[in-house]
Here is the input.
Amino acid sequence: MKSSRTFALLLLFAAVYWSFDSLMPSYKPDKETTSSEFSVDRALEHVRELSKEPHAVGFPGHEDVKKYIISELKEMGLETLVQEGYTAGDWGNLSKVSNILARIEGSEKGKALLLLSHYDSSPHSSFGASDAGSGVATILEGVRAFLSENRVPKNDIIILISDAEELGLNGADLFVNNHPWVKDVGLVLNFEARGSGGPSYMLIETNRGNGNLIKEFKNANPQYPVANSLVYSIYKMLPNDTDLTVFREDADIEGFNFAFIDDHFDYHTALDNYERLDRKTLAHQGSYLMPLLSYFSDADLDNLKSLNDEVYYNLPFYKLVSYPFEWIWPMFFFGALSFVLLLFWGFKKKQLELSHILKGFLPMLITLVVNGLAGYFCWSIITWWYPDFKDMLHGFTYNGYTYIAVFVSFALFVCFYTYNQFRRISTPNLLIAPSFLWLVICGLVAPYLKGASFFIIPLYGLLAGLLVTINQKEPNPFLMVFLALPAVLIYSPFIKMFPVGLGLKMMVAATVLTTLLFVLILPFFGQLKSKGRLAYLFLFLFFALGITSHVQSDFNEERPKPSSLLYVYDADKESSLWATYDHVLMDWNGQFLGDDKREPSAETISSKYRTRLNYVADAPKKNIPAPYIDTVLDTIIGDKRHIEVCITPKRNVNRLEVFTNPVAISAAKVNRIPLSTYYLEHRRNKLLTHYISNNDFTELQLEFPKDSVLELTLYEASNDLLTHPDFSIPERPKNSIPMPFVLNDAIMTIKTVRFE
Here is the structure.
């Protein structure tokens, strides 16, 4: 029996490994595959060409990438169109957009299938290999393979390689609200990235129920679906949108997102390059596109909308499992009834004792509290010990995977050690507490987070284990592992996914989920005589991995530190400053801020994650011209004052931000594009951001109460601090990269104009 338990334990660990390994296809060189097959290597050639240099809107590389995509589509025999125009999206971010469009004519007149990804990279240093060169490459290679079959689809297939996604979903906004083809679209497949590796998650965008979309997705039969209704429920709560969101919100068009999030530290940085893109991840994107393209190009896209929702989750072999929301409460009540009946049966069989049941709550509560606190304070502890990590704004460090292993090992040590102290309590008595807890969890998610209702499935395994342990003193260990498989296969990937996707500050999700998974496997763990030894094994792993994480904590050429430097000239005060977002300076930027650095008295410009400048220092005054401001119109009509202002750069610039004092602006246009009433009512002090192409002007038309005094504060920036002839900034060292999400390597001027 001892050897059987040991072998069963090894099988359990193998199942944990399988839960990760089964999510993605393997990769092997495949350039010589048949022309009708998706080739990862051929797609990689596209990625290489698309990611030679940063290519954000307004950058020289942007035009080169656009020309490459057009040439590749034309080589396939497709006629291409370029949709150009200004748009400000929903966030007040103005840019000039150049969408790339092509269309494959179908044999029938139904709705069209639209393939979507964006080709602009994030300003200003990202090479955009993953985000979203991988998506563009997937579509180019997939369409090539599809066309090589010489089959005529029933539905039209529209290819939209959008622009300015990184600036506010502007390309999608221009297409959805201005292009005549949008009325033909019945379904969208969007390919995205928020990292450079790992499995690609399928996320549904719908305004109604997901029932028909799930049904049709399963009929298309992709081989490696990674999807569950919990992830999309969480996704909808986060402030992260994709181009597909615009289709859903503005045109009620549904679709599927496919996005990967591993290696999140590469996202929007200079590390988002060809070399770091995971080949297996690109293969995974292709494994979605090809069956979906084949299926939906012939499917009825007019009947995808549904009022019914389904709970869904992926399992090896079974692929995507789903059932309707109507089953949630019956499945819960069946679990609750089973629990009550097992209580009666256990007392009748004299395998349960009330005092022992109550004592069985103690180890569960102890492990949850200890592991919850450890996970909750994880990021605070790490950044206290390694303050440089505060400058990784993703919240996920290069050794983040090791930290996950460290804290999971600690959580397992706590679980095994604690339950070993309560080993005199029989397994059936120990199982009542986790069964009750998981029933409570399932009872709460049923009304409040329906997408997580598949939690009931692993609970059935736990209840089945309780039934076996009530009836057998020494149950078969392989049976116990088998009953735990749903829990292992469903929850194990979540333990990694949450801190990777949401940052190490969410390590509490990993430690608590590890604990909750442990108690689901308690029917097997409860019969192990080696819980003490396993506790010390995981304690050893905790220290060993902790040492490893420390060794990996330094910054070097492989793990470069994000850093920032700005030159800020205030034309109103005629003062100049060096500024940085860094918490811990490097020699490279520290030489400019020096010992005289101080905290800024006021913020200068907006940034993602509300990141604020940390230090400023006086800088020598340079001849940096502020923009020319021309008041074209200033008049009063009724109780409103109407002002038209034209702002023209006097130097080559990339970005203009305009802030106002607290004035109720009732209407606004920028370069003749109106800003939405909703945005104006919720904008706080920011009026707009113009991401400038070809040094274009910015024209503002504003309407506000005639008795108000309006102040416009202009922040004009150029990303040329390191190359400007008036400065002698040394090249950034190889152990550093530009900090993402903030204005960086930039020269900025500040100028205020007042209308009294």
The chain has a mean pLDDT of 94. The CA atoms of residues 339 and 463 lie 7 Å apart. DSSP finds 21 helices and 23 strands in the chain.
